[in-house]
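Two proteins were folded this term; both appear here.
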Amino acid sequence: MDKCRLCGRETVLELSHILPKFIFKYAKSTSLTGHIRATENPNRVVQDGKKIPFLCKECETLFSGWESYFSQNIFHPYQNDEKDSFDYDCRLSKFLASVSFRVLLYSFENDKNDFFDSPILKHAPVAINNLKEYLLGNNPHPKEQRQSLVLLDKTSDEINDKNMYLTRAIDFDVMTTDNCSFDYIKYLKFLQLCPIKIKTNRGWRTARISNAAGTLCMKDQELPDYVLMKMNQSIKLIKSQRGELSSNQKDKIEERIINSVFDQFN
């Protein structure tokens, strides 16, 4: 028996995904190789993302409802190039907050000393509690932890590391700078941000999601410089990790890509 990370009830916990399973399922089904690789070890195939005992059955069901809303109404239509503008209701903010809550709490519990500088450390429990109270319905607003969501796409038809990162990468992290800390969550053509503690709203306003209703669309967004810096660092990481694939893995990937191309014409 353990405590549910959301409601605090002592019970048998479900094996929960930190990032929703439908993200990895889509990434795998649309990959030329048919597999997803871990960024920390490119020779290891990932099946469906990190899973840990995290939520009770009731809270897992609560999160699943918001995941279904996002998956059906926004994620798949945008990934499949069916729509680039979406009217949304409060369930979008709830879904994003549920993902930010999982990423932040998981990082705080497992990698606190690696992710959080001491000046920022005291703000993480406050942010976690704000998200928790919002998700449980005890507060109508997530307070400082208002969610941001950016729709991404490739910048050209060229096949390069930048376009690969913008459209295919799955990446989550807790970032800290000299005066701020935030969740950075990137899944395929979506970039999600959640402030933990920031000193200025500059760069955060245009991508904010209302906790009530609004319209999400593909447009130029103003983002803080440190977010853009993180994206550029991740793009460079893709290039460096390509050289870390073993010869055996490179041969397997090449074979799967060739077979995938042939299958499309047969």
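Next, the second protein.
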Amino acid sequence: MPEQTNRNRAADGYTAAAVAALLVLTGAMLLAMFTRTEPHPPLEVEPFALGPFLAASLATGAAAYALAVRGARFAMAVALLFALTALVSYGPQKYVDPAFPRIWPAVIVAQVAIAGILWQAVCRAVGRMRSTGRSRA
């Protein structure tokens, strides 16, 4: 694997931190669902049962974290996929959820983490476009 610059290592660290935050929140949500601790998520959302979806989301998040920590090339793609799965549980639709007054801390933290992942992806894409433009000139 090629040597990473300090900037890339820092970006991977920010991505790993955001992924870790989403992993904790998703895991806590899954535990609340299993134990039926209020306010727990519904057992099913259209078009799937929420338990298997959260398990797949956690698996994707674990892969994203492991790849980001290693600085793997496709870590950002897996982190973006994990962020998309987190939007099902913590997306903007939660602002109109009747349980929002009780779940807002988790929603806000998750949305900040998702925004962090998206920001890192955009910064990385812009950086690559700039470096590609310089190498062609």
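The chain has a mean pLDDT of 87. The first strand starts at residue 44 and ends at 45. These notes refer to the second protein only.
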